[in-house]
Design brief:
2 copies of one chain form a homodimer.
Chain A: H1 2-8, H2 12-23, H3 27-36, E1 44-49, H4 56-69, E2 74-80, H5 98-101, E3 106-112, H6 120-134, E4 138-143, H7 148-155, E5 159-164, H8 170-179, E6 185-188, H9 196-208, E7 219-221, H10 230-246, H11 249-281, H12 283-292, H13 298-312
Parallel strand pairs in A: 1-4, 1-5, 2-3, 2-4, 5-6, 6-7
């Protein structure tokens, strides 16, 4: 439990090491996460989502800087599910953040799903815990896309900022409708572009249809690149947490998230067990061969995998 | 097995019913899918992916029309992971496709993850099988986003078309890098927009870094809205399948996909079992309460869930 102790003392190198262990699905990571678990729950976790091209990364950088100016410690997790294909995290370097990475109170980490067994969402939740126990005040989770895993990740945060951009066409309309309900704060970024005012109005109209109890999501203008509108967003982040605490919604939401997390971890563990077992007896390969040859259907094959898993139990790996 | 027989005879109403059963996680769907499984594998499955705003839907419609003109039967599955939040599939109506929906040889279905236990990817794979056994020649799987689940779905197809659009800024660059490796055919849509030529050149330069054996992904121009470049894309779809068959890559890729599918089904089944069991004894709720109160960590709670699952077996639900 050396790592856990060091992390709780605020050792930044231990933090980096723990995150790497989590990403590598190292069993030791779980031990550390168990040990630090009751030191978590203090950080305010903020999801940043929206379509590609909305300028989420730049905006997140500026928010981090502003909150840091207000005396806070900040983590940014850039989640990029497409990176399994690249052989290297796309956002890994994030050159434009060079001025932030030299700041001891700001920690940036990119996460891809390359080589990840058991899912990116599961690992992201682990990394959030590591940052939380370490003592970060704010943890930003920035996603590249708007797919299922991003939605899953965003559901696990306290405050979601939906970043839109003027005039990206019809598909964006569809996405807007789809993700409207997950936003707590709406930002129209690149507000100097044509159509910004119309996008603001559309968002406000759509929000009128939403049933919210006690919290009316603000629609804010920003130009991330020029640091315009950043303070206002930070104020609203703080306001939203106040609301969550006072309305007792924070406890309820976090309890619901815990349920999803338990299931995610269980599914991830099972996947790891299945792969480990396949390395021993080739069961998965043999079944896949049969299914590919149409000698068996994948549902029956899957039942066999589950039965083996059940018969083996979870201690034998 | 009535449904299976009717489906194999080409009954369109049965097809629609089976898809609904799959979406509703109805156990009867699995029985039908098992019965039809050795009638699958004939269709050419094509993934259409790319950033929002690239005009994927319009392009897919035009491709379907063109292939239909060539005497083929076509299914389009529009996958929209964001729809759990909307209380209704965003792409559900797809008004612009009205002329296609009246065509007896074209079948369009939108899939969201609302209420889906066990994952959207699992269900999409089931729907692909239903279309395949029914006798569709081409099955298009069109995704809204570029997240993990889309990537998972796209990995399960035979040919992936990556649709790009000129000048969407830096984030798009990142996504391009990330998804470059999954494309078999690249289309620069809306090629009448400024910057189209530059985007084509960028794509070609990036593709030079790719290690491909025997297949050099073409970069094609198109204007979906005006039906320009559609025939050429269809030709390349056919060419790619020829290549897969002749190089024996088709068999290999489908075998690899089967492995992933077996795991997906297993994870989905376990999730369903856990939820069903929770309805009986509240185990998940009780554990979540404890974890939320920091009396237990989620990893230990998850182990308990797995142990109960293992002890119960999979027959008791």
């Amino acid at each position: 439990m050396d790592l856990a102790k060091k992390l709780l003392k605020g050792d930044k190198r231990t933090l980096a090491r723990l995150i790497t262990l989590i990403e590598n699905d190292d069993p030791h990571a779980i031990e550390v996460l168990k040990a630090i678990y009751n030191h978590t729950g203090k950080a305010h976790v903020i999801g940043i989502t929206g379509p590609p091209g909305a300028g989420k990364s730049t905006l997140t950088d500026k928010l981090a800087k502003e909150l840091n100016k207000r005396g806070k410690k900040i983590a940014i997790i850039a989640v990029d599910p497409t990176s399994p294909f690249t052989g290297g995290a796309i956002l890994g370097d994030r050159v434009r953040m060079a001025d932030l990475t030299n700041n001891p109170d700001v920690f940036i980490r990119s996460m891809g799903s390359r080589g990840t067994l058991g899912g990116l969402a599961k690992n992201t939740l682990g990394v959030i815990k590591a940052f939380d126990a370490y003592g970060m005040d704010y943890i930003f989770v920035e996603t590249v896309g708007v797919g299922q895993s991003e939605v899953d990740i965003v559901k696990a945060v306290d405050t979601t900022i939906l970043v839109m951009v003027p005039g990206l066409g019809d598909d964006i309309q569809a996405i807007k409708a789809g993700i409207m309900e997950i936003g707590d704060i709406f930002v129209v970024n690149k507000a100097d572009l044509e159509g910004a005012h119309r996008t603001m109005m559309e968002l406000e109209t759509m929000l009128d249809f939403r049933q919210d109890e006690g919290w009316k999501p603000p629609v804010l203008e920003a130009i991330g690149r020029d640091n315009i509108g950043i303070g206002q967003i930070c104020d609203n982040i703080e306001k939203h947490m106040d609301f969550l605490v006072k309305s007792d919604k924070l406890g309820y939401a976090r309890r619901e998230n815990v349920k999803k997390e338990i299931i995610e971890i269980a599914k991830g563990s099972m996947e790891v067990h299945i792969f480990n077992n396949n390395n021993k007896d080739n069961q998965l390969e043999i079944l896949a061969e049969r299914v590919a040859n149409k000698e068996q259907d994948p549902y029956t094959a899957s039942d066999e995998i589950l039965k083996s898993f059940i018969n083996r139990g979870i201690k034998n790996d």
